[in-house]
């Protein structure tokens, strides 16, 4: 048991470090090739912070652990809104960019409902995976188009430390290779440790995926949003959560399912409903003066506490 816990902790450290290396290396290479920072932020950085979820879900799918693959995404989306955004708003009330309310959050609600519909038969096959990846490409294209039409939106995009790269480009490649390797090893340790703990305690793999694995793979988003909140950069904190949830559904599950179809064994309608209701709840909360205040952050955290109590009851 102790060995499995240590393996999971080692896996989480490798996931976090690997994601950091992959983001830094790939973003620097993109800038060397003249790709604008805005585009880098909307694509590479966004995908980079979601890379732990991606690698964990692919590893779980390949191992035939569909409950962890699906539970990781559903759980991460719940954690992102209820815990990460809740904590960020508790740290500091934040204004919300109108584009999030009018464009990104409604799309997130639609994607959440779509995922519920696709999982009604208990599995995701390659056609569904292809549909999700196509949705990802459409979303990224639309987001870039809107951002280019509204120059002010560029100020709200999180592109951490994307200065003009110096030094050898091989260093950037090394960051990418080492980061990717750390992600693969870390994901393998995390999945294996989680499965062993679930079997030892008699807890379903789905519950492990919805809680421990989901929280672990959400660490990059948690760090980004907390730092943004402390700095008073509210748009980054909120946008990071919304964007991450969209990438989780469209990219993570889409790509994982293309690699190998998965079943949702143990991830029930209640879990999917909580994920969707939280996305829907964002709309009225954000529309209220286009601002999120501390009591709303407290409500989000209470929702998560109630959800965890339900899982463990």
CATH homologous superfamily, by name? NCX, central ion-binding region
CATH class: Mainly Alpha
Strand neighbour order, sheet with most strands: 1-4
Structural class: mainly alpha
The dominant shape is globular
Observed structural traits:
A middle domain of Talin 1; two-stranded antiparallel ribbon; 4 strands; mainly alpha
Molecular structure report:
This protein has 313 residues and is mainly alpha-helical. It has a single domain (2-312), classed as NCX, central ion-binding region (A middle domain of Talin 1, Up-down Bundle). 80% of the residues lie in helices and 3% in strands. The protein has helices at residues 2-32, 37-49, 51-62, 66-91, 98-118, 126-149, 169-201, 205-217, 219-230, 234-259, 269-287, 294-312, and strands at residues 94-95, 123-124, 262-263, 291-292. It has a two-stranded antiparallel ribbon. Strands 2-3 form a two-stranded antiparallel sheet. α4 packs across α8 (205-217). The longest helix has 33 residues, at 169-201. The radius of gyration is 18 Å and the shape is globular. Mean pLDDT is 81; it is low at 152-162.
Characterize this entry briefly.
It is built from 12 helices and 4 strands.
